[in-house]
Amino acid sequence: MYRNLLTILAGCGLLLGVFALSFQGSSRTRADYVWNNGTEPQTLDPGKASGQPEGELLLGLFETLTVYDPFTLKPVQGVAKSWESEDGLTHTFHLRPDAWWVQRGEIFQVDGKPRNVTAHDFVYAWQRQFYPEVGSEMSFLLLIIEGTTEYQTVLAEHWEKVLEEAKTRGVSVNNLSDLEPDYREAVKTFRQEQWDRLVGVNAIDDLTLEVTLKSPAPFFLSVTSFYVLAPVCREIVETKPDSWTHPDHIVTNGPYYLDQWRYNEFVSLKKNPNYWETSNYVTESLNAWSQQEKLTPAEERQQELWNKLGSFDEHGMESLEALALENDSTALNMYLYGNIDRVRSLPSELLGPMVRAAEKPGAHFPQFHHGVLGGYYYYAINLKLPVFKDPEHGRKLRLALALTIDRTSMVENITRGGQKPAYSIVPPGVPGYPDYAIFGSGDFSKDVARARELVEEVRAAGVKIPRLRILYNTFEGHAKIAAYIQSNWREYLGIDVTPTNQEWGVYLDSKRTSNFDIVRAAWIGDHEDPSTFLDMYTTENQNNDPRYHNPLYDRLILDYSANILRALETPTSRDAILNDVRNWPHYDETIARRKLPSDDKTLAQQFEERIEAFAKASEEDKLEKAMAVRLTLFRIAEEILMWDMPTIPIYFYTSTQLWPPELEGMAMNIRDSHPLKMLRWKDGKRPTGTRYQEMPKLD
Questions:
Q1: pLDDT digit string, tens, across residues 133-169
Q2: What sequence ranges are listed for the domain Solute-binding protein family (predicted)?
Q3: Sign of the C-alpha dihedral computed for residues 208, 214, 219 and 223 taken in this order
Q4: Considering the domain boundaries, does residue 604 fall inside one?
Q5: Would residue 652 count as lying in a domain?
Q6: Phi and psi at residue 316, in whole multiples of 5°?
Q7: What pLDDT is stored for residue 12 in this prediction?
């Protein structure tokens, strides 16, 4: 295998030499754990981050209320040491008193006093997600909370007025700090008053946080584990609004603190000596739990993890480093030579052979980790572009493009990682959600014939199809996919496109400003619920790359599903939902005809039967029946989305990674979530030397 890899990676020798030497200098020693992050993170501000390159780092620097268990994805203790909810609506979190804010490893002080993390820090961080000048792309995760939709609207309208008034005074405003002191304080006061009036998030005291949801959400404790909901320290954010994430300034509360950040090279973290998870704390907790008759599920899982991994202060890694390598071959080369400890993406040429090697009877390939990932790869279409904007001909062209991608051939010959062709948005495996293709016949030749008819109709109407640009972030896998799709569209439809790559930060800016024709993107679910994939296409969602707008879709997601108990409360409200769906112009040809794979019913029949079942249910069964209606509403919304085709799903993800068997605390999971604080080297020793000798032969 080593000879095969040398052939494939022959062009990477010089890069390897540069990186290998960088570990040998006196100013930079090799970290205990080094991984390839794939690109340069664009921010370390939880309020502004939205991508995977930022996420793993942020969950090392900041700790949320709950933390992912990588083995089960169930919540365990974070800043919250316990929590409860009697009705599924109001959740009370009890924070630990020894969760400290730190700056470069030292406890951060305010007015000469050590500053611990309080419930007020979570309130501030969650408020900040809605500040227009912050520009969060993930604030929609908080819209399940009572009053947040109204708060978002009020703040956006108020900020527009603030900007207009500042302009009349000759003041240029980008951030709140740009306002004159009196005006700045007035904005802060207004925002706090509106939050207190509208939003169901309250700091009962310093160590008690109360959160009230719009409707019960079984996945809420997974959402509280997401980095977007991490607390931030108000004192540092507001005193250094433009530079607070710099290594010399940043104040964090996680198991690690930021040591260095060298642009386009690496981000290094060091162990937080003041992190709460000490051996004494763990021992005391385990002893206390052993005396209890019954533990909560979270306590049981935390107990298992501590028994397996030990405490962070004694066994956690001392130093970590994330590299910004955009080339898979370079990363693999460095892994084989022992310079990094984990690669999360492999060259496509090796994926097929590696999967086959791992699946051979009696195979021993402990470094290779392969599994399903809860996400999808897609192309978003710019609906502002004239050729795509027309409601009739634009839709026909978008559908034609979607039909003319030979996904089966692509995943077998280009991506080669066991991905599943996608003809819908929500990946398989979401509990209670049906899995079937919404568009496409299952026969590529028939799909191409239909696509050609659609394109002929568009051209016959006098629409000129220009050369289009496919935008993607710099990465060899994306380049191969774009080239393959380019060839499909040219060969079968006579439509020319130009693949164009941009560095990660520039690419993100292009997406945000709609500076693209068609853009490559991907989404990994935050929790096991359809909402995590469908919320993003509502009109005001910051992740709505195509700028899709459909009032019925918005109502299904934001009004009915998000407020399901209220939406189903009366016969009048139930009839309103039924009529709203039935009045969709394409209801008869889609929802009324769609046969579900689980039985012989149509989607329309299931919808009506589930609403009727809710109406007849006893009080104790109403919640269960309401959640069933909610799932059907999501499926209807997805049908509408795929009819309009603002985005083209291409395949559902798998994850293929390499890490050595001595690395403990790692587990493949559908969210590709690997909390840094749980990583351990077996027996406390990182293996040294090269790894290529341990790789199996490839066919």
A1: 999 999 999 999 999 999 999 999 999 999 999 999 9
A2: 74-544
A3: negative
A4: yes
A5: no
A6: -70, 155
A7: 40
Tell me what pLDDT residue 289 has.
94
Which DSSP helix (H) or strand (E) runs through 34?
strand 33-36
Question: Hey, what amino acid is at 671?
Answer: R
Domain count, the chain: 1
- E strands, 222-265, where? 256-262
Residue 25 confidence (pLDDT) = 45
**Percent of the chain that is helix, strand, coil (3-state, to 5):** 45, 15, 40
Q: What is the DSSP letter of 29?
A: P
Statement: residue 679 has pLDDT above 60: yes
Q: How far is CA 232 from the centre of its chain?
A: 19
Tokens of 579: 């009529």
Q: Are 227 and 44 in contact (CB under 8 A)?
A: no
Contacts of 640 (CB under 8 A, 6+ apart): 550, 552, 553, 556, 584, 586, 590
Tens of pLDDT, residues 625-639: 999 999 999 999 999
Residues 370/418, Cβ–Cβ less than 8 Å:
yes
> Nearest 5°: CA angle at 70, between 228 and 227?
5
Cα distance between residue 540 and residue 520, in whole Å: 20
How far apart are alpha carbons 463 and 456 in whole angstroms?
Answer: 10
d(CA 680, CA 674): 12
Condensed to tens digits (0 to 9), the pLDDT of residues 643-674 reads: 999 999 999 999 999 999 999 999 999 888 89
Q: How far apart are CA 498 and CA 417, in angstroms?
A: 26
- Written as one string, the DSSP assignment of 156-217 is HHHHHHHHHHHHHTT---SSGGGS-HHHHHHHHHHHHHHHHHH-SEEEEETTEEEEEBSS--
Confirm whether 126 is domain-assigned: no
Percentage of residues in the chain with pLDDT exceeding 90? 83
What burial class does residue 181 get, using C-beta atoms within 10 Å of its C-beta: 0-12 exposed, 13-18 middle, 19+ buried? exposed
Residue type, 95: L
Q: Look up the domain containing 587 and give its range.
A: 549-643
Average pLDDT, the chain: 93
Under DSSP, is residue 473 helix (H, G, I), strand (E, B) or coil?
Answer: strand
Please, which residues have CB within 8 angstroms of residue 502's CB and are 6 or more apart in sequence? 471, 472, 473, 474, 510
- Please report whether residue 27 resides in a domain: no
Give how far the C-alpha of residue 552 lies from the chain's centroid of Cα atoms, to the nearest Å: 25
